[in-house]
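Re-running the complex after MR caught last week's input typo. The corrected sequence lines follow. Everything else is unchanged.
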Amino acid sequence: MTTKHWLNLGVVGLLALFVWGAGRWLDEYQVRLLNNVAVFITLAVSYNLINGVCGQLHLGPNAFITLGAYTAALLTMTPAEKAANFLITPLYWPLSQISLPFPLALLAGGLVAAGAGFLTGFPVFRVRGDYLAIVTLGFGEVVRVLANNLQGLTNGPLGLKGLYPCTNLWWSWGVAVATVALITALVNSGYGRALKAIRDDETAARAMGLNTFRHLLLAYILSAFFFGVGGGLLAHLITTISPSLFTFFLTFNLLIIIVVGGLGSTTGAVLAAAFFTLAGEWLRVVEEPLEVLGLHIPGIPGMRMVLFSLLLLLVIIYFRGGLLGRREFTWAGLTRFCSRMGRHDAS
Amino acid sequence: MMLLETRNLGHSFGGLLALENLHLQVPEGALYGLIGPNGAGKTTIFNLLSGFLKPTQGDILFHGAKITGLPPEQITLLGIARTFQNIRLFGELTVLDNVLVGCQGRGRASWWQAALRFPVYLREEREYLARSRALLEEVGLAGAADDIAGQLPYGHQRRLEITRALATRPKLLLLDEPAAGLNPQETQDLMDFLRTIHREYHLTILVIEHNLRLVMGLCQHLTVLDHGLTIAAGPPAEVRRHPRVIRAYLGK
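Corrected-run output:
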């Protein structure tokens, strides 16, 4: 174990302490926010793998999140709850009888999403660029339409209600840490180097003997798996899911997060995910009636989105590569920064 | 024994016949030149040989075995590496990473072994790193190892692209206009560099070039193309006096 590993372990330890403390002393609303932050970190970091590191404009994360959410939800609900939900069309056997513990359901959600990633990967990676964006966007819509219409599987537009709120801070942050650790390790390995090479010039990468299709498919499936797990977490956090929850708007939010964070930077994805989730709540203030300097401003619903758009504009104009560009947080970088600061103080 | 042979090779883009009846015979260890005016079909030949295009007629044999229609990555792993007419580096990666990517095509460690830093992966990485550093040392780019490839001076980018191709351990190196955009001094350096790597790595080199001085000085064999047809082949001294070559280059 090198110093770097001990430092990483130390951070995980501190995080665990924080989660423990948060569960003990924070109120329900704050805990809910922290859960949201963790789930969006998981989703954004996985999205950054395919979109930022591989440079493929994948617009279908909502499809995989839907698959993960429904799979996990259908597996954790008890047969009685299922019967109570599926009033119009009964749920297909044997799903109607199965009930699994939460961790297994999460894993199943991830695996179903990864399976869908494997199947769709073949048509998706026959094309590149704008065409790839359209194919994946279409796939997201297909899944949403299926979720709306496969009554016997998803309960249609009514969705699934009354899920047990299994997602607690330990699960959400545990998954977030595992996702960040695995994806960072992969991106910093020879595989990550190959993925970045493909992003820079796929033709040259093929001329170097890299099977670019297999590399891209792997990144796509891996991100799909974590989308699925994240979807499962989200379902058991909100406890009510319906197809309208997983529209393209969700993908769009994730896209804003990774673009603002810096396409290709995992650190950026983590910071931006946390920032957007928290800012989205704090900015609720602007949608409520306000008294500013004796001036009465009536609450304008959707005002938050206007502010987000402004923020996005500013980032695009002043930070073209996102806030972090492709830089990453590293311990060595922190040491360099501190020693520079130290010299600065001394002089 | 011919290292590379094409039989009746041809390619047409829709109705446009870019290349016809090419019979190329490149002996092992040769420095072979491919010249011709613009639009003669030279780059098409390279794209066919390296698998980026599938021939519409004829066959390509490497070491006597048919490689027609194989995808580019497989052809590279068989031992044919190439460079591109307009340099295609991994512009945002470092110089060292560019060469490392060239090394790792035959890697056996799977993605999870890489992510979890299994010994099989670490052993491979150590080998790639040693090989890449040695290569950069030999071509005189060791000092720039940590620079971003896209920010190198033009001549160094050309050299790095060739180095990266060498990292795939080729037997045959295809160079697409390596002297394009170089000044006379740089061209001279490039010729010396090509002679060195030809000797040191026991390579066979097939080079497309517009710079006749470079081709005449470097190559032992030439094939001259015009409008997709082979109009002359042989040693440089013979080819340069060939009436059809003179006509193609100077007009009549």
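None of the earlier attempt is carried over here. The first helix of chain B runs from residue 42 to 49. The radius of gyration of chain B is 19 Å.
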